[in-house]
Specification:
mainly alpha, about 80 residues
Length: about 80
């Protein structure tokens, strides 16, 4: 009788372990997908950041040129 009870306990323990392993595998797969999406977003954000930096630099140069023209107009007036 003891061996049957021990066998049932071992079977239950193995079933519980199997369920936990399946849950870990599922979680791992979800994290891999999430990680992939986050890497794609990071790449997109990096590209967008570079574009915004370039636009900012162009705007800064235009503003500096306007300031220079305005200063030269002050001198001539």
């Amino acid at each position: 009788m003891e061996k049957r009870d021990t066998g049932k306990l071992n079977e239950q323990a193995l079933k519980g372990l199997e369920i936990r392993v399946d849950e870990l595998i599922k979680t791992c797969e979800e994290l891999k997908k999430e990680n992939h999406l986050l890497k794609l977003q990071q790449g997109s954000h990096t590209t967008e950041r570079a574009s915004l930096i370039e636009k900012n630099e162009q705007a800064r140069k235009r503003v500096e040129a306007m300031i220079t023209r305005l200063k030269s107009m002050e001198v001539t007036v």
